[in-house]
């Protein structure tokens, strides 16, 4: 949604800083607190806003992070080419079938490693 103002949530110049502040809050209060109590209090005091599991920088923190990013210069990183990762895996279950009657089933690789069952027709089921 663009209402003429810049969204600190989507401003790439301050994004690394926002994420760093969020993670530093975890480091400061301890991960045992999750995103509650002490984490929430410190995050809000530093200028993080929104749901604590997906914080964004408030106006003052955003301005400070952008000024710092401009002072530090370009963030040294390569572009992420998502196409290099290929398609998302559809399932972790492997197809298994009976060679005699054609019965099919899905089985997790963990359990297939222990051995596949015998089909009701008496034949050993095999990975398809």
Layout of strands and helices, then pairs:
Layout: H1 12-29, H2 38-46, E1 48-49, E2 56-57, H3 59-72, E3 93-97, E4 104-108, H4 109-112, E5 126-127
Helix pairs in contact: 1-2, 1-3
Explain what this protein looks like in three dimensions:
The chain is of the alpha+beta class. It has 2 domains: 8-72, no CATH class; 93-127, no CATH class. Helix content is 35%, strand content 12%. The chain has 4 helices and 5 strands; from the N terminus they run ααββαββαβ. The model is unreliable at 1-10 (pLDDT under 50).
Please give a quick description of this structure.
This protein has 4 helices and 5 strands. The chain has 128 residues and is α+β, with helices and mostly antiparallel strands. The protein folds into 2 domains: 8-72, no CATH class; 93-127, no CATH class.
The biggest sheet, with number of strands, parallel, antiparallel or mixed sense and barrel status, is: 3 strands, antiparallel
Mean pLDDT across all amino acids: 85
Q: Number of helical runs?
A: 4
Helicity, as a percent range: 25-40%
**Low-confidence sequence ranges:** 1-10
Count of folded domains: 2
Quaternary status:
single chain
Q: How many E strands?
A: 5
* Shape field: elongated
Instruction: Write the element-wise H/E pattern from the N-terminal end onward.
Output: HHEEHEEHE
Structural class by sheet pairing and helices = alpha+beta
Give the termini distance in whole angstroms: 48 Å
Strand content: 5-15%
> What integer value in Å does the Rg equal?
25 Å
Sheet with most strands: strand arrangement: 4-3-5
